[in-house]
Amino acid sequence: MKILVTGGAGYIGSVTAELLLDEGYEVTIFDNLERGHRDALDPRARFLQGDLRDPAPIREAMLDVRPDAVMHFAAYALVGESMDRPEAYFRNNVTGGINLADAMLAAGVKKIIFSSTCATYGQPERVPITEDEPQKPHNPYGESKLMYEKVLNWYRDLHGIDCVFLRYFNACGATAKFGEDHEPETHLIPIVLKTALGQREKLSIFGDDYDTPDGTCIRDYIHIVDLARAHILALQEGRAGAFNLGTGDGFSVKAVLDIAREVTGREIRAELAPRRPGDPPRLVADAGRAKAVLGWTPRHSDLHAIMRSAWEWQQAHPEGYSR
Ligand code: UFG
After folding, report:
1. CB–CB of 278/139 below 8 Å?
2. CB-neighbour burial class of residue 119 (10 A; exposed 0-12, middle 13-18, buried 19+)
3. Is the model's pTM score more than 0.90?
4. What's the pLDDT at 314?
5. Does any domain span residue 126?
6. How many A from CA of 170 to the centre of ligand 1?
């Protein structure tokens, strides 16, 4: 099977491409390398450099490759940045996505697996969160992902494109080859580990007065290898619709810090800081549908195992990928 992976030089895309290649799929990566990294490109994949905001390169790529399915990771993904530059998020994540879907139509490609997010739910009314939770995003990032889900639903109804939306919770961890390298880094686990490495002086804990047992925010941390596996399962004939991808277990910021101290054997300085605006107190997935329909079970997402894999990668790549 031939798969076209957009954003395959990024964090989750690179690991999914790696898994696909390990399993014998033919992979073409389409990426503009704006935020992805050349060193995160699996050398076994064919690489086409292009930007989705321009309709021509993706159309050409699609007509050339004629993949059996598209896995679409390429997007901007920083909540804070989206509050400063909403237009960039709508242009890249929505307009770019429409160019991708139109290229699929031109080439007769009938299946897309789309990287969506729990940010489409905003502040959920019920936790654990099921796919039926109302989608009311609180930032342009989440909104852009929801808008593209809606666009694809119409392409499904009117053009017969099969769509799978995978709504990730907190992606983390690494493989031996590929890991997390964002600029700027805003995510908890890499920041904690950079502090352990001495690259940052301390971790700021954003608020300890939330309505949670230790007062810090709770998240559902899911290993990227488990996320990648869900994409491969979603390729099966007849799989369609939205799926939450998380473990169903929540860990507080303080719990993450404790596990990082245990795994690294380092002190890791931390101090209390004000709340970060927009952080929901608790985001935990009900991933029952992914289990029932995709046959998906997270196997790498024990938080100690996640931390070990991320720590190994950070130590091997203290400066991240070369720039
Ligand atoms: N946190 C800190 N200090 C830091 C960084 C993070 O205390 O230096 C806290 C945050 O306040 C939050 C938790 O650690 O409570 C996790 O924060 P991350 O930034 O790692 O992840 P988020 O839960 O904010 O974001 C994730 C994804 C987004 C997605 C969002 C949905 O990374 O892409 O979930 O809410 F949009």
Report:
1. yes
2. buried
3. yes
4. 97
5. yes
6. 8
